[in-house]
């Protein structure tokens, strides 16, 4: 951020009076521009013990497999966001059960929320997917998953499935986990 | 948003090519300025069956009672945000258990995440609180609560406490619930 989105003046990055962290400040109009984490909402769509995955047609991680998920939009709920992303990326409808993984990525200011869901009806690749397919546990392409959040969600699921109990898993993924996927660049 | 925060040019509000909703667009530098919901993280601090509430010293809803909660910041986790807000507003430390309520407010682009927690040690009013106090169920100031998210979280808790089971409650609060608190202005 270089310019005030309210008045167009230059902004500076400094701690406002009464605050304890730096913000983008406009000395012309007085605006303080807060920046906050974004929610990535998605689903773990299941049918007959198999999981729906999408092969990404867009960067980042084009060609790698992911659960349907994306940035939550204004004016929708988390459940609506998760269902919409599933519709957009996999042309699929889901019946959503519980929130299953809540994963913080503080180094990139994201919070993943993946809901366990039953896949309903047909599916097909949406514009952001090269391919959409169902995978049994033995066939999951572990080395070709797009993001560590996806790997972690799948590992929780296959572990929990043995007991048939699916509690919410809260966790965080740091730079180390991320570098396994993306390198240190 | 009137000006591009990247280059200072005027923005327009229109649907970008390949998208399906309006964004703030800069024709000069090509930036697309996405806007997304913000997370409000907080705790339900409990000790000896009583709940810690804070009387707000700032607007909105100054003078009304709330659970300690506030906007999650970049570079922190949801658990860190909930604990930090509790420390700032009630000068209190907590041992956080589970995520207890996840409440969407799509009309104001917020997602509340309140964690059930044990209150540890002392407490006192932080700079954003007029007063901090512990309340038994019979003493909760139901007519002086700051936000419908707080009322709903407390009602879930006192209901669940009878059975000793505290599942995650996912819900949404719309304009109607909000108008009970704020009027239709």
Automatic annotation (TrEMBL), chains A, B:
Domain Nudix hydrolase intervals: 36-158
Pfam hit, one: Zn_ribbon_Nudix
Domain of life of the native organism: Bacteria
GO molecular function, a single term: catalytic activity
InterPro entries, per database record: NUDIX_hydrolase-like_dom_sf (IPR015797), NUDIX_hydrolase_dom (IPR000086), Nudix_N (IPR029401)
Record protein name field: ADP-ribose pyrophosphatase YjhB, NUDIX family
């Amino acid at each position: 951020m270089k310019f005030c989105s309210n008045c167009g003046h230059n902004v500076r990055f400094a701690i406002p009076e009464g605050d304890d962290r730096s913000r983008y400040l406009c000395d012309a109009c007085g605006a303080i521009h807060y920046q906050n984490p974004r929610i990535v909402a998605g689903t773990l769509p299941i049918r007959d013990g198999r999981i729906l995955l999408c092969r990404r047609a867009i960067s980042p991680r084009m060609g790698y497999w992911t659960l349907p998920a994306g940035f939550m939009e204004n004016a929708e709920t988390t459940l609506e966001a998760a269902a919409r992303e599933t519709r957009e990326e996999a042309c699929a409808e889901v019946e959503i059960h519980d929130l299953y993984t809540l994963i913080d990525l503080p180094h990139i200011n994201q919070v993943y929320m993946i809901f366990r869901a039953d896949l309903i009806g047909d599916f097909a690749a949406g514009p952001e997917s090269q391919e959409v397919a169902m995978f049994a546990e033995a066939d999951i392409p572990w080395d070709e998953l797009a993001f560590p959040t996806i790997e972690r969600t799948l590992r929780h699921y296959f572990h929990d499935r043995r007991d048939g109990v699916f509690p919410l898993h809260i966790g965080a993924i740091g730079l180390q986990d991320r570098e396994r996927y993306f390198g240190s660049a």
